[in-house]
Amino acid sequence: MATLFYDNDIDDSFLIDKTIAVLGYGSQGHAHALNLKDSGYKVIVGLYEGSKSKHKAENEGLEVFSNSEAAKRADLISFCLPDTVQSKVFNEDINPNLRSGQILLFAHGFTIFYNQIKPPNNVDVVMIAPKAPGHRVRAVYERGLGVPCLVAVDKDFSGEAKKIALAYGKGVGGGRAGILETTFKEETETDLFGEQAVLCGGVTELIKAGYEVLIEAGYEPESAYFEVLHELKLIVDLIYQGGLGYMRYSVSETAEYGDYTRGPKVIDEKVKDNMRNILKQIQSGEFAREWIAENDEGLHRFKRLRKENEEHPVEKVGKELRDMMPWLESTT
């Protein structure tokens, strides 16, 4: 059984008198910085020169410095930047200003596990990975709750690296929900697999395929949209609240029977074989090399795929329908 840590298990004194520099003020960065500040920690923000986020962070009561100056001032440096820019920021702004005993913290293990960043041996390297988008991390914290986090240690120069990481996790609200101990390898590989095979890639392709099948059979686009996309949130909310069993308890027996008998015909052993191949590409580093090369070459394929998917018919009819449902804004 994996180890879980809660607020009562965590000593925040390991960080309470230290300066934390949060690099980036996007989805995760703003949530980490504000939650840590509200938890009583000393927080500064590091941004690239000319960042549009500077005024936003300052208006929310945070001191903002360049990435290099933030690194000089900080005891702990938190990387809340996109994976694709982390190595550049580290090499140009952070590494030249590192001193022995500092702590490098990551919200995702990609750049460390795939050796895009190679820290010196005289610093701690740890991870606190919230299992939610940043806006959710912030919103839940403001309600007095938290989202689960993962904690991992790659380098323990101080001998206290895990305790320091847990104190950070408590600061962002993770100790309210539970902080699960893992490794950089496990977090990186399972996170990429979940995104590609189920949460993003799997779900979006299932939606598009279902929509296309209904349209090909002559059904109206609006009906197809409601059945394969709009109602998905209702099902996911039930699963989120009580697992697959609670969802099945909540739907009709007709839907439950169709789930048991037809679901395995859609997601069959061939699909699982495809998932196994995706996992192998992650484990071998093939996906990481492909993604790194894509960035190095200017993201041409990525931009083409983004445009193609933005133009899918389910997106067009969905926008038209959502424009008639203003209440959706209050439920996101």
Give an account of the 3D structure.
The protein is of the alpha/beta class and 332 residues long. It is 57% helix and 13% strand. It is built from 17 helices and 9 strands. The protein has a 9-stranded mixed beta sheet. Strand 3, helix 2 (54-59) and strand 4 form a beta-alpha-beta unit. Helix 1 runs parallel beside helix 6 (134-142). It is globular and about 65 Å long. The model has no long low-confidence stretch (mean pLDDT 95).
Tell the overall outline.
globular
Cα Rg:
22 Å
Q: Given the structure, what is the number of helices?
A: 17
Q: Biggest sheet: strands, sense, closure?
A: 9 strands, mixed
Percent of residues in beta strands? Answer: 5-15%
Helix/strand structural class: alpha/beta
Summary tags:
332 residues; alpha/beta; nine-stranded mixed beta sheet; 17 helices
Structure in a nutshell:
It is built from 17 helices and 9 strands.
Ordered list of secondary-structure elements with their pairings:
Elements: E1 4-5, E2 19-23, H1 27-38, E3 42-47, H2 54-59, E4 63-66, H3 67-73, E5 76-79, H4 83-94, E6 103-106, H5 110-113, E7 124-130, H6 134-142, E8 149-155, H7 161-171, H8 174-177, E9 179-181, H9 184-199, H10 201-216, H11 221-230, H12 232-250, H13 253-266, H14 269-284, H15 286-296, H16 300-310, H17 313-322
Parallel strand pairs: 2-3, 2-5, 3-4, 5-6, 6-7, 8-9
Antiparallel strand pairs: 1-9, 7-8
